Amino acid sequence: MNHVFSFARSLPLSGRIGLGLVLFWLAVALVGPLLAPHPVGAFVDQDVFSPVTASFPLGSDYLGRDVLSRLMWGARYTVFLGAGAAMLACLIGTSLALTAAVRGGWVDEVLSRAMDTLISIPSKIFALVMVAAFGSSLGLLLTITAITYVPGNFRIARALAVNVVSLDFVTVAQARGERGLHIALREVLPNMIHPLLADFGLRFVFIVLLLSGLSFLGLGVQPPHADLGSLVRENMSGLVDGAPAIVVPAIAIATLTVGANLLIDSLKPVEKQG
Amino acid sequence: MSGSAPHSAMFGVLPLIGKRFASALITLLLVSAVVFTISGLLPGDAAQETLGQSATPEQVAALRHEMGLDRPALTRYFAWLGGIVQGDPGQSLVANLPVREVIAERLPNSLMLAAFTALVSVPLALAIGIASAISRGGRLDRTLNVLTLTAVAVPEFLVATLGVLIFSVKLLWLPSIALVSEDASLWDTVRSCALPVLSLSVVVIAQMARMTRAAVADQLDRPYVEMARLKGVPFRRVVLFHVMPNAVGPIVNAVALSLSYLLGGAIIVETIFNFPGLASLMVNAVTSRDMPLLQACAMIFCAIYLMLVLVADVVAILANPRLRAQ
Amino acid sequence: MSAHVSVRNLRIVAGSKAIVDGVSFEIARGKVLALIGESGSGKTTIALALMGHSRFGATISGEVLLGETRVDQLDEAGLQALRGRRVAYVAQSAASAFNPSRTIMSQVTEPLLVHRLASKADAEVRAVDLFRALALPFPESIGARYPHQLSGGQLQRLMAAMALITRPELVILDEPTTALDVTTQVEVLKAFKAAIASVGATAIYVSHDLAVVAQMADQILVLNQGRTKEQGAAEQILHAPTDDYTRTLMAAASPTERSAPAVVAGDALLKVEGVHAAYGRLPVLHDISLQLARGATLGVIGESGSGKSTLARVIAGLLPRSAGSVRLGGEELPKGIDGRSREQFRRVQLVFQNADTALNPVHTVGQTLARPLAFYHGLKGAEAKAEVARLLDMIRLPADLATRNVRQLSGGQKQRVNLARALAARPDVLLCDEVTSALDTVVGAAILELIDELRRELGIATVFISHDISTVRAFCDQVLVLYGGTAVEQADAAAFARGVHHPYTDLLMHSVPEMRAGWLEQAVTRKAVLPSEVGDDLCRFLPRCPVAIDGRCNAEAAPLRAGDGFALLCHHELQTLRELTA
ABC transmembrane type-1 domain: which residues (chain A) (predicted)? Predict the structure, then answer.
């Protein structure tokens, strides 16, 4: 815990705000459902699209359900699907990138060309095509969003790895007779960790935005499950009334992604001033 | 080396540009294979799906034959590709019209939306990016950094819904639904596009500004900038005559990448505002599993993306004497 | 007469650290002051302060007087008017100081134009005059080129043109020849000296190289860690230094010759025969042969691009040879790293030039040294720990350094660890690639001592690759001179000292500045007599050779001429060469 505090203190203000927001949403995703005042699907309000009241701190939705409770459940899908897919994307992308960089030659050529092709399909378009082809169960969504962002991670990780591989200590390891796996994991990977973590954060932000976007279009998380994007979609009819039910989940997503983005940005090495 | 007079250098660059063009074409071909594999080959049997579980195997086989699904994968791919290249990607299953007609109706609207957005966002983004880079580390830079950092991570539907709440619901200035038709006056068209353009611009401006800043800041750190300062060149002149010629390539690249983001961003924005564009058409195609339409839309988006990147590439080549002289 | 430039009590602080502390000096009009020191001495920082410029937001205090102007009190507009007009700067790396997107002419004339001293047409005329004065090729048209189309030596001279075009009263030259090959350096130094004298400017010459400074300076100021160690007339500092630090610098700059070359008996341990190698289609090594006995040292000399580092890579298998053989103790080594056994890897170890990149920054010293111990000798746990401690002791570093991350070490310590990692394998052959060129002279000299001592003690055959002919002469039993991928001369130390040399070796030896004033004036410029393209089988040195024979050298391949303990590739008879190069 001390680590967290000393880490937080080393950050600039924007970074601390970002860290706070990320930790907040992580906590909500973990324990939110336990603390939710109402069951997720219960119709508890006589009215629909109620404004903020004492009994419904964030109003009620288009069916008279408690928005706060639905938000606490929905955050779980958004955060965990996003984090899971980001991890999967980075794991696949970075493994392929290390293979390409350390092996070089035709292996690199083929992998790079394949990833260049995939990256030429705009990510949302790619995801739409895959959803159309395979559907959008939770498992499929996780896989689809992960695959969508593999090429991006590959590109970053390969650039980093190629830089490291060109350094003399890798040549020394090769001249020592080390095998590819040792070089990739012991010599190269540890030198890429910081930028890779930043990229993981970035992928997380992209994936959360993509997932929410898909859900918003009705192509993402399907009822009875609902992530934050689905909440926005369900309540679109409340837009003309300015109901909190539509604005609150949208702001919730924004605080999560903006928070993550602020945190990543503040981790970048301090730029020298000109 | 001595023969590198300006005109011959311009001719020397043509093979390089030709090479990039060919490479973009090959990528587009590979992309088409990926799109077709995912949407045409991998998902189960379209004939079975159309007829449902109750159909007899004979009925399924008959339909399969009719739809051409019993041909080998490669034959089907080339038939499909041939159709696309000739401008006839087939029949839209849902609209029961040729895909070409459906798209022809929507594409101009999308292009107009993109053009408006580009017109608004490019100058603004370049101004913000260059201003931030010049005042690196200063208060202006830090403020703009947090602002753009926030804007890139905000979902489009939040910007759009807030825009509707403020300008349509509260202030009653702008329509919340984009009605685009041929009889609408220019003023009406602009008014009805205002909110979609605003929603798209926020994210695009932020992205473009950040990349522009990075490109310019990178150049400002180079030794030649210090050298120019030590020659007594005023800072404004350093930025205009020393930094900008070197930053043009990366900046154009940033603009291309951000504009390509419009393609994806438009999907959400067009849906919210009921804007009759290509992106919302594609969403409909996904919902109704209208594969021929979906594939055609996807290919158009990919082609536009590759074209933007290619243009940026060519500009970067022309701006760089090292590449020019190759 | 009052001094032209006067600096009093200069102090430059970055963060909480003083980079320069209490430095004072004066320069009379038209004289040259040299600032001498190792990296971190603050010499560049002082030079930039004379233009009112500091890097990384450092603050300048003290008094900087140029004529009647207090430079330290000028505002931004005042500095802009001063820079490029009254004070001009020549940077170390012209390749990065020129804007890659603009023509040379637009950059050279810019100081005149921004200060409104001449019209564009007049400025270009003045630029062409300067190009001619600086002995640049094609002075009329060179201005239309872009920086990437020119060589390092040309760019360096063009930067001098850019500095001198406004006829400034003070010119600051910041290590202007450090990035150049030694044969190019002579020409550039001559051009600089003449050009500065013709403008009548006062100059500050920043350098780490005492011999270069001896050619250029009237006065010398020796710096260490931001403080003045000694200052005075050049003659006095060079010939009668009073400060201990100055003496250390002088000693390190002139390596003492080994008492006697190690007499080594026995068969050749490493035997390279007829090796060719290429990067893709670009040939880099052409028919190289050499032999090395246990405990012996072979020095490989050449300038950048001569293929000397490639030779090490080929022996180590990093670049597979395209023809020829490499034998180790009678056993032929596979071409690339793929076919080699762990034992073969162990016996040949490489030490790279730049320890910053040769050591993995995420590992500790202990991890770095333990890896080859585990990999080759299966040493683990306490055994490995003890061996690491023994290695650290061998390279004279304290044992508690083992837990330190390599990033925390100084440059010299890193290079020692770099060396120890190779020794941990207990190799038979050590390939040292420019191991001292990234280091300060004093630190580099100590590393050389260490290598020399260890290879005698451990009986390791060493290939010592360097661009520095005096180091090689002092340390090696045999010398191999590479030019354009070809071995133009090969000799044992005694024969090399007796001195019949290939014209290239001769040029190289006469290009190394000597530590006395007047050497530069005596150094004869050797112009190529048959400037031509490199032919396939012709002598590689032909396009630059000052003694080429028309009809022979440009017609047929050079014959091998062997003598007592040496051999070289040249069309001239040995006797003629002896006379030509005497």
Answer: 75-264
Own/partner contacts of B179-186, CB < 8 Å, gap of 24 or more, are B180/B109, B180/B112, B180/B275, B180/B276
Residues of chain A scoring pLDDT < 70 = 1, 269-274
- The CA distance from B30 to the nearest CA of chain A, in Å, is 6
Q: The whole model's pTM is what?
A: 0.86
Of C92, C101, C108, C91, residue with least CA distance to C147: C101
Instruction: Considering only residues C262 and A150, tell me which one the structure prediction assigns the higher pLDDT.
Output: A150
Residue A33 lies in a domain: yes
SS3 content of chain B, % helix, strand, coil (to 5): 80, 0, 20
Is residue C260 over pLDDT 70? no
CB spacing of B322 vs C111 below 8 angstroms? no
In this predicted structure, the answer to whether residue C295 has a pLDDT above a threshold of 90 is no
φ and ψ of B178, to 5 deg: -85, 110
Chain B hits for C149, CB-CB cut-off 8 Å, are 1, 4, 325
Q: Confirm if A90 and A145 have CB atoms less than 8 A apart.
A: no
Supply the CATH number for residue A162's domain: 1.10.3720.10
C85 touching B (Cβ < 8 Å): yes
Q: Are B230 and C89 in contact (CB under 8 A)?
A: yes
Q: Considering chain B, what is the average pLDDT of its residues?
A: 83
Q: CA-to-CA distance for B122 and B114, rounded, in angstroms?
A: 11
List of chain A residues whose C-beta atoms are within 8 Å of the C-beta of residue B23:
none
The verdict on residue A273 lying in a domain is: no
State the nearest Cα–Cα gap between C75 and chain B, in angstroms.
13
What fold, for B106-315?
MetI-like fold (1.10.3720)
To the nearest whole Å, the CA of A61 is away from the closest chain B CA by 16
Contact A133 B301 (CB under 8 A): no
Q: Quote the domain boundaries for residue A109.
A: 2-266
What pLDDT, on the 0 to 100 scale, is given for residue C39?
81
Cis peptide before B321 (omega within 30 of 0): no
**pLDDT score at B3:** 38
ipTM of the complex: 0.83
- Cβ separation A218–B302 shorter than 8 A: no
Residue A193 lies in a domain: yes
% of chain C residues with pLDDT over 90: 40
**Domain segments of chain B as ranges:** 106-315
Q: Is the pLDDT of residue C534 over 70?
A: no
Q: What is the mean pLDDT of residues C345-359?
A: 91
Interface probe, candidates B7, B224, B315, B318, chain C, greatest C C-beta count within 10 A: B224
Tokens 């508890």 locate to: A44
- Which of the four pLDDT bands, split at 50, 70 and 90, describes residue C386? very high
Mutate to test the interface with A, among B27, B139, B152, B286 (most CBs of A within 10 A): B286
B97 CB within 8 Å of a chain A CB = no
Contacts of A261 in chain B (CB under 8 A): 149-150, 152-153
Domains of chain C with CATH codes: 32-41+75-252 (3.40.50.300), 270-498 (3.40.50.300), 499-582 (no CATH)
Structurally, how many domains does chain A consist of? Answer: 1
What residue type is assigned to position C325 of the chain? S
Q: What is the pLDDT of residues C314-333, one digit of tens each?
A: 999 999 999 999 999 889 99
Using a CB-CB cut-off of 8 Å, the residues of chain A touching C419 are none
Give the pLDDT mean for C494-516.
86
Q: For chain C, say whether B137 makes contact (Cβ under 8 Å).
A: no
- CB contact under 8 Å between C111 and B4, yes or no, is no
The answer to whether residue C96 neighbours chain B at the CB level (below 8 Å) is yes
How far apart (Å, rounded) are the C-alpha atoms in residues B209 and B203?
10
User: What value does the mean pLDDT of chain C take?
Assistant: 88
Note the pLDDT tens digit of each residue in C180-209. 888 888 888 888 888 888 888 999 999 988
pLDDT for C545-569, tens place per residue?
888 888 888 888 888 888 888 888 8
> CA–CA distance from C406 to each of A17, A26, C387, C399 (Å)?
35, 37, 18, 14
